[in-house]
Structures are given as structure tokens and as C-alpha cells.
Design brief:
Blueprint (H helix, E strand, L loop, with lengths): L3 E5 L2 H11 L8 H23 L12 E6 L4 E6 L6 H8 L7 H10 L3 H11 L10 E9 L6 E6 L4 E7 L5 E8 L14 H12 L6 E8 L5 E7 L16 H12 L7 E7 L5 E7 L15 E6 L2 E4 L14 E6 L8 H6 L1 H20 L2 H15 L2 H4 L4 H7 L3 E2 L9 H7 L7 E5 L3 H5 L5 H6 L3 E4 L2 H10 L1 E2 L2 E5 L10 H13 L1 H10 L29 H9 L3
Parallel strand pairs: 2-8, 12-14, 16-17, 16-19
Antiparallel strand pairs: 1-6, 2-3, 3-7, 4-5, 4-7, 5-6, 8-9, 10-11, 11-14, 12-13, 15-17, 18-19
The structure holds adenosine-5'-diphosphate (ADP) and magnesium ion.
The site of magnesium ion has 4 residues, from helix 2.
């Protein structure tokens, strides 16, 4: 009938599926975590919808996740009675990948020869629903969107096409049935129709899920016969609501994976609670690597807002500033309306106060991190944190103390501004820096010569944002931040100044001549005190843009 359509996966989805079918992962168990995580999200959404829209005809009385294993048919089904999907949503959400960075990720994977690195990469990206094709050679999904009457049946072998069919009857929510591959197909494949296996995987990965995950299991009865019994496999405790000493490291890590969609461990965990007039709990994480969309214009922030255990929204920009967009986690605020909108949140005084506290806490955590962790952190997120120097004037001091910069002092070791100041030579009053595309270009630049000759340390700044923050901040610890490429740098002693003046007299005619000859190209020709080996160099005025900034603006079409 025309209600059944066979459609092609979007090109990028197809490639990602290929990777999953011929899986590069050794740990295939994680497909179950992905399904449970999706089911849990769908239940969160349904609960919120039912609370906010009283007219929505849904049953929110017994929201849960159900796992059903059929040994004979070799199928495993994960079912939820959550929000469900419309036919268009199925096509849009399951048939395509909306994540930014997909194309780039796939290109990297195609060119790579290192399987372990590939696992890492794709894990960071988060494979979600497609992980089912690691363990199944056919997947069927039946779903009905809350409030709609008909349902949608989707099926695929993961090989390029899928079918979608509109069906008259479907229970509320979504069920995903995996037609499992034979167990001997692969060493890493467990028997996912085995109760104990399923129970262990759920415990390991999904214990904190806030909805009951149920399974009907065989149990020995009193008289030796087996009886069927429905059990809840998870403890369901919202981690953030427990006190720190009730939560162990492994639980934090699993929770992180759930909220961050990341398969790597977090670098730091921040668990805090605010009491008094405005109560809240926050469980935040600093990831160990940057996501692919860190600099994408529509890149998302990673903090979810809950109100008394009810999920309200992802990507809550009111709680965390843009320059900390890599922070992942949950904030559960007790005294907010479930209907709260993003706009209202932005204006809410108490939410602003929470945000200030979260920022302070994150910056404090960064300050106290071990040198090794911090090095990893800075490599991954340094360029983003420096955006804070433009965005968040209240925390300039704290942010400046977090900055690490390459320097001529020790090529192998980035320095803090504090350490730079402590190394400043007698008579040095300013902090010198050079900006450019990369270290090699900067080090070969003639601008550095005089500083090198004098033994002055120069910071080597290569991130595009560096140009902007040094201008904005202007000084550290009362010492001006001075570009080596701008204006006249005063490096001379009195004696040298006299000598220079004498030289200027001596060469006055030459300078006038050169100035005349180059009048269309430069503003002024003067004798330089910067150069030791190069015969000449072009410098900017103190108020000109540095060459890198000029290039940046040109690239932006200005
Ligand atoms: P992610 O969860 O990271 O968005 P997935 O591949 O796991 O990626 O899922 C893609 C999308 O499909 C989800 O964002 C969700 O909108 C939809 N989806 C998946 N499973 C379900 C489900 N059980 N109920 C409702 N929607 C679902
Ligand atoms: Mg998912």
C-alpha cells in the first residue's frame, strides 16, 4: 500500500551505520544503554508534556521502561510508554543525523588507520540508536506520538535503506525490537536474551535512570518449579539528589555518560547543593575532550534543567555562560514553575544567582585541578575559556589566573601570567606578547629579535581569540600587555638612547629619502632598535590592528 515507503538513509547516516554494522567497537553491550537512555528521555518529555498541557490525552500514571527477551525468536525488545514519534519525526530523527561535525568525523575515520583512536572518536561523537546494529541484523521500531491516534512502524537492516509504514494501532510510546545476530558471529557478542546478562548490563550502565526498568524473569518458586515475576532492575535514585558520600566514582561516571552522550570518563565532577531561599542541586562535569561542535555557531551548551526531578530542558543557557558551554550536567531547582520559558529564566534573579555560583565553582575547580589534568583541560578547552575574558568582566581576575600561554622562556612548557611576571627582568615594566598563526611563524618573525637580544620573555599567542582578549584586558597585575609588533617598544637604556639619537642624526637624510620613496606604502620610516640580524621590518602603529587580527577580519569579509 502507499502507506509503506522505502527510504534511503541520508549519506552521512549510511556511513555511520556501515561503521556500526561492521562494528569497530569491542564493547557491544552499550547498545542497551543507548536504548534505555532514549527511552528515559522520551519518558521525561511525556511527563513534562502531561503536566504542562492538561488537555493532552496521554496516560502518565505508570511511566516505565520494559525489557523483553525472547530466547526462541532471538529478539530483545526495549519498550517505553513515553512521548513517541510521529512518522515525520521517525524519518527526520532516525533516518538522518543532525549532529554537527558528522561529515568531519566521518572524513577523519575514513583517513585513519588506527582502530583504537577510531573507537575513541566515534565514542565521543555518540552513536545513539545506530549502536543497535552492532548486535542486531534487523531492527524494528513501533511508535506512536503522544496525542496522535495512528502509529508508525520502521524497519531496517542498517544497510542503506529503511521502510516506514503508517499503522492504525500502536501502544503509547516506542518499542524497539532487535533481531539479534547469532552469538557466535563475534567474540564480543553476549547472549542478550539471557536474563542475567541483561540485568548486569542494566545495573552497570543505567542504574540511576529515574524511571523503573522492568523485566519479567524466571524465579525458582517454593516447590522447586519456576515462576514468572516482574522485577525492577535499577535503583532509580537521582544521583544529584544524593549526598556525595552516597555516590561512588563508577556511578558518577555512568551518569556522566548518560547526560553528556560521551563514552569517555569526565575529567572532573562537581556535585553541589544550594540551600536557603532558593534550593537547588547541581551535578556538573568537565569532559576530558572537546566535542566536535565546540565552535559551531549553533553549538549547544550541556546543562540540563530539572525542577524537583522533572526534566524541563536541555541546553539551558540561563545557567551557564557561553564560554563554559563544554560543562555538562544537571541542575535541579526546586522552586520554579514547570512551565518556565527560556526567556523568563534569563531574567530570573535567583537563576542568575545560581549561575554566578556555578561559574565560581567551575572556575574554582579549574584552579584546584592537578597539573596533569589541567594540562589536558587547557589543551582541549583553553581557547573557549579565554572567550570568558571578553564575556565575563566579573571574573577577569580568576580567568587570567587560568590562562596558560606558550612562551619563549621554555618551549616545552606553557606559562601562567603570574610566573611570567615573577621572571620579569629588572627594569622590565610590561608583559610582551606576539600573536600569529603558529609558533614557528612567530619565532621567525623579526619582531622578536630585540626582545631575544635583551633576554626578555615573550608570550606566544596563537589562538584567534588571543588578539581580542589581550586588547580588552590590557594589563595583568598592573603590567601592560604589549604586542611586540606594535608601536615603539622602549627597550633602551639611557646610554643606548643617546647612541640612537646620534644615529638618527647621522641617517636623517637617508630616512627622509626612504620615507619619500615609500610614501604610498608606509606611514614613516625610522631606525629600528628591535632588529639585530634582519635589515628591516614593517611594524604597526600602537593603535593599528596586529597582522593576525587584520587577517582575521579580512577572512570574515570586513
Ligand atoms: P540522541 O539520543 O543523542 O539524540 P539517538 O540516535 O539515540 O541520538 O536518537 C535520535 C533521536 O531519536 C532522539 O534524539 C529522539 O528524538 C528520537 N528517539 C530515539 N529513541 C526514542 C524513543 N524511545 N522515544 C522517542 N524518541 C526517540
Ligand atoms: Mg540517544
Amino acid at each position: 500500500s502507499d502507506r509503506v515507503e522505502t527510504l534511503e538513509f541520508q549519506a552521512e547516516a549510511r556511513q555511520l551505520l556501515q561503521l556500526m554494522v561492521h562494528s569497530i567497537y569491542s564493547n557491544k553491550d552499550v547498545f542497551l544503554r543507548e536504548l534505555i537512555s532514549n527511552a528515559s528521555d522520551a519518558l521525561d518529555k511525556l511527563r513534562l508534556a502531561s503536566l504542562v498541557d492538561k488537555d493532552l490525552s496521554v496516560d502518565a500514571s505508570d511511566l516505565h521502561i520494559e525489557i523483553e527477551a525472547d530466547r526462541d525468536a532471538r529478539t530483545l525488545t526495549v519498550r517505553d510508554n513515553g512521548i513517541g514519534m510521529s512518522r515525520d519525526e521517525v524519518v527526520g530523527l532516525i533516518g538522518t543525523i543532525a549532529k554537527s561535525g558528522t561529515a568531519e568525523l566521518l572524513r577523519t575515520l575514513r583517513e585513519s588507520k588506527d582502530a583504537a583512536a577510531d573507537q575513541d572518536l566515534i565514542g565521543q561523537f555518540g552513536v545513539g540508536f545506530y549502536a543497535t546494529f552492532m548486535v542486531a541484523d534487523r531492527v524494528t521500531l513501533l511508535t506512536r506520538r503522544a496525542g496522535q491516534t495512528g502509529g508508525t512502524r520502521w524497519e531496517s537492516t542498517g544497510e542503506g535503506t529503511y521502510s516506514v509504514e503508517t499503522v492504525d494501532e500502536a501502544p503509547q510510546g516506542t518499542s524497539v525490537t532487535l533481531h539479534l545476530k547469532p552469538v557466535d558471529a563475534d567474540d564480543n557478542l553476549h547472549d542478550y536474551t539471557d536474563e542475567r546478562t541483561v540485568r548486569e548490563i542494566v545495573k552497570r550502565y543505567s542504574d540511576f535512570i529515574a524511571w523503573p526498568i522492568r523485566m519479567t524473569v524466571d524465579k525458582p518458586g517454593d516447590d522447586g518449579a519456576t515462576v514468572r515475576e516482574e522485577q525492577t532492575l535499577n535503583s532509580m535514585k537521582a544521583l544529584w539528589a544524593r549526598s556525595r558520600d552516597e555516590v561512588d566514582e563508577a556511578e558518577y561516571k555512568e551518569f556522566y555518560r548518560h547526560v553528556a552522550h560521551d563514552w569517555a570518563d569526565p575529567l572532573e565532577t562537581i556535585h553541589m547543593r544550594g540551600e536557603g531561599t532558593f534550593e537547588y542541586e547541581a551535578l556538573l562535569f568537565l569532559p576530558s575532550h572537546a566535542p566536535l561542535d565546540l565552535f559551531a555557531p549553533q553549538g549547544r551548551r550541556g546543562v540540563q534543567l530539572y525542577v524537583k526531578r522533572v526534566f524541563i530542558m536541555d541546553d539551558c543557557e540561563a545557567l551557564i555562560p557561553n564560554y563554559l558551554r563544554f560543562v555538562k550536567g544537571v541542575v535541579d531547582a526546586h522552586d520554579l514553575s514547570l512551565n518556565i520559558s527560556r526567556e523568563i529564566l534569563q531574567q530570573d534573579r535567583q537563576i542568575r544567582a545560581v549561575r554566578r555560583r556555578l561559574v565560581k565553582k567551575v572556575l574554582g575547580t579549574l584552579k584546584d585541578m592537578s597539573a596533569e589534568s589541567y594540562r589536558t583541560f587547557w589543551t582541549e578547552f583553553g581557547p573557549v575559556v579565554k572567550e570568558g575574558l571578553l564575556e565575563d568582566p566579573d571574573n577577569t581576575e580568576a580567568l587570567l589566573d587560568l590562562v596558560r600561554a606558550a612562551s619563549t622562556h621554555d618551549p616545552a612548557e606553557p606559562t601562567t601570567l603570574r610566573a611570567y611576571v615573577e621572571r620579569m627582568k629588572d627594569g622590565q615594566t610590561e608583559i610582551y606578547y606576539a600573536t600569529g598563526e603558529n609558533r614557528a611563524t612567530i619565532e621567525n618573525s623579526p619582531h622578536l629579535e630585540a626582545f631575544r637580544a635583551k633576554g626578555y620573555e615573550v608570550l606566544i599567542l596563537t589562538d584567534p581569540v588571543d588578539e581580542v582578549w589581550v586588547e580588552r584586558v590590557g594589563a595583568y597585575d598592573g603590567k601592560t600587555l604589549r604586542s611586540v609588533a606594535k608601536g615603539q617598544v622602549d627597550l633602551e637604556t639611557e646610554e643606548e638612547k643617546e647612541k640612537a639619537e646620534a644615529e638618527r642624526q647621522e641617517y636623517a637624510d637617508l630616512l627622509t629619502f626612504l620615507g619619500g620613496a615609500l610614501t604610498d606604502s608606509v606611514k614613516e620610516v625610522r631606525l629600528s632598535t628591535r632588529l639585530t640580524t634582519s635589515p628591516a621590518c614593517v611594524v604597526g602603529d600602537a593603535h593599528d590592528m596586529t597582522p593576525t587580527l587584520e587577517k582575521m577580519y579580512r577572512a570574515m569579509g570586513q
